[in-house]
Amino acid sequence: MSTTTHAPTPAAVPTPEPTDEGDPRLAVGAPAWLATFNVARVVSAADLRVALRLGRLTGEGDDRVLLAVALAVRAVRSGSVCVRLADLDSLRRPEDEESVGVDTDHLPWPPADEWAEAVARSPLVAAGVDGPDDRPVRWVGGMLYLDRYWRDELAVRHDVDGRLTAVDLPVDDARLAAALDRLFPAEQDSRQRLAAAHAAHRRLTVLTGGPGTGKTTTVARLLAVLHDAARPDGAQGPPPGAPRVPGSVGAHASRPSGLRVALAAPTGKAAARLQEAVRDVVSRFDDPTDRDRVGAPIASTLHRLLGFRPGSTTRFKHDAHHHLPHDVVVVDETSMVALPLMARLLEAMRPDARLVLVGDPDQLASVEAGAVLGDLVNRSPVAPPPSAPAVLAAADTALVDAPPLLPDEVDDRSALSNGVVRLRTVHRQDQDSEILPLAAAIKAGRADDVLALLRAGDRTVQFFESPDGEPDDAAVAEIRTDAVDAGARLVAAARAGDATGALAALAEHRVMVAHRRGPAGRGRWAAQVEAWVEEATDRPATDNPWVAGRPLIVTTNAPDVGLYNGDTGVLVADGDASGVVAVFGDPDAPVRVRTHRLPPVESVHAMTVHRAQGSQFRRVTLLLPPETSPLLTRELLYTAVTRAQEGVRVVGSEAAVRAAVAHPVRRASGLREPLGP
Ligand SMILES: Nc1ncnc2c1ncn2[C@@H]1O[C@H](COP(=O)(O)OP(=O)(O)OP(=O)(O)O)[C@@H](O)[C@H]1O
């Protein structure tokens, strides 16, 4: 489109070097002014193509508007829900490693006011909350959204606000008081008790905390409280032979209390961990009645809970018209739930059902758009504080003297108005481990402390410092020892057909990286680990991918076989000499899948930190990218470090560590603030 009168003339535009006309990253035929932003890698060719097409369809000829639309497309690609046009800093930030160092300051950015005005009156754009419904892009409060994400954000906002402002749910007060006393008896349980009291009365509880703060323990105890004190009226339990509801607790749709509970997590791995951990806590309850009430919960992926139907026009069986039957839905690892999936979950829930979102907002968010958990935790208060006496009493005990720990944190009382209960005390016993203090220092942005803890180099935390990020011989030798130890155990168990042993070995050690490609990327390290393990286990070179001992990661959702993107497993020997079967999930209850039924899989000798979310490994090796990498963020470092149960080894430069700690992810969305004009 070159009919515009709003763009500077091409001659006035400084053209960044180099421009290779055969480069597929460059948009062919884009107007010169817009192409400048593509050459500088501010927007990709694909972003521009979408914007130009929408411009043609709606008759929009202003290049400034088309640039804004291309930026909204880019925003979603990089995890934001929308783009703030006034936030030039983030617009200028390089998107990938190849864009690092490109001068974006001298690009012909439109003046902010004129740009906003042009966007607001464009035929392509619906301006304001009440703007027309049929435009592909929406402009609200200085933010530009692709319409689909606008709708999802609005839906989440309405559903969450509705839950936060609704009247209290009926509870048997005497039973609640007794159950809270029984299940949360100690002073140090006070925040956990508050979470349970809140979940009994309110329709949305957001339970957050770092590793080891007792989130899973609280979920298990909270379920016991709800089964006791929040039974549906007159419920006597399901009739004999009642059908089982997927994702529900126990072997039936509901427990004897009549309360139908679903446990879910975004990935199969996280669901398996949740199920195992909750059952473990329940088995240790003092009171056998509490144990019976909660039973042996089954956790499923969120996709399975909602009835994911690939390829159908209505993607989920449960939606606004076909609500989930459950009275309580608990979602773990909520930091990994992207905005669209959160919108689907909320719309699928009965308005009077309780939703408990559990997670650590300091972890990396989903690769898809949105950081819903972080937004919900840090919202300005939208509702008055809860008024139920049990919640007030629990809050008075739990929230004394608790100023915000971080500069931009909402205080605990305001957070409670938004349904948020933060667990702050680490209960995990391992006093000698430096992993949790390291995680705390990363989270608080204290780079000097992070480096001091890394350099102190105890049994649990190691730092192989290398100015260029390349591990030296000593580091390589150590990584090799861990990789070969775990790999050899994995292969031996797999060749012996021992699914439990193979899955346990899979969680022994993991190499983690930030990038998929490049010298510090997954490709290089996966090949390296594979070669080490092959050599150590005398595996004959073969092109056959179906060999016992190959660790796998699923790369798409396959609900028909119960596997989901990100699930990890391993091929183990089965039957005759050449037969293998894939095993996934909990080592103590492996799920077996024949290879011909497997969805697309890759080998998983090394993985990106993003992929590792929701999993834990006994030992973790993290290879940091160069300090200029745009993927090097505080959340990446925090997530990698907190995946380790017993030991973490970090390889990289001081500058890379500092860059990570200094850069919390900033994902644009409107959810934190009141709805703009
Ligand atoms: N109130 C409590 N009093 C004493 N110990 C507790 C309490 N809550 C939890 N713990 C103990 O702390 C440890 C960590 O608890 P839990 O696994 O529930 O934490 P988490 O937040 O779910 O951790 P992660 O996110 O790392 O899985 C467990 O050993 C648990 O028994």
Automatic annotation (TrEMBL):
Residues 604-651 form the UvrD-like helicase C-terminal domain. PANTHER family: DNA HELICASE B, DNA2/NAM7 HELICASE FAMILY MEMBER. Its EC number is 5.6.2.3. GO terms for cellular component: exodeoxyribonuclease V complex. Residues 41-145 form the RecBCD enzyme subunit RecD N-terminal domain. Residues 1-10 have a biased composition (Low complexity). The keyword Nuclease applies. ATP binds at residues 209-216. GO terms for biological process: double-strand break repair via homologous recombination. A helicase/nuclease that prepares dsDNA breaks (DSB) for recombinational DNA repair. Binds to DSBs and unwinds DNA via a highly rapid and processive ATP-dependent bidirectional helicase activity. Unwinds dsDNA until it encounters a Chi (crossover hotspot instigator) sequence from the 3' direction. Cuts ssDNA a few nucleotides 3' to the Chi site. The properties and activities of the enzyme are changed at Chi. The Chi-altered holoenzyme produces a long 3'-ssDNA overhang and facilitates RecA-binding to the ssDNA for homologous DNA recombination and repair. It comes from Cellulosimicrobium arenosum. Signal peptide: none annotated. Belongs to the RecD family. Keywords: ATP-binding, DNA damage, DNA repair, DNA-binding, Exonuclease, Helicase, Hydrolase, Isomerase, Nuclease, Nucleotide-binding. In the RecBCD complex, RecB has a slow 3'-5' helicase, an exonuclease activity and loads RecA onto ssDNA, RecD has a fast 5'-3' helicase activity, while RecC stimulates the ATPase and processivity of the RecB helicase and contributes to recognition of the Chi site. SUPFAM superfamilies: P-loop containing nucleoside triphosphate hydrolases. InterPro entries: Coronavir_polyprotein_1ab, P-loop_NTPase, RecD, RecD_N, RecD_N_sf, UvrD-like_helicase_C. It catalyses: ATP + H2O = ADP + phosphate + H(+). Residues 1-26, 231-254 are annotated as: Disordered. This is RecBCD enzyme subunit RecD. Pfam families: AAA_19, RecD_N, UvrD_C_2. The gene is recD. Heterotrimer of RecB, RecC and RecD. All subunits contribute to DNA-binding. One of its GO terms (molecular function) is exodeoxyribonuclease V activity.
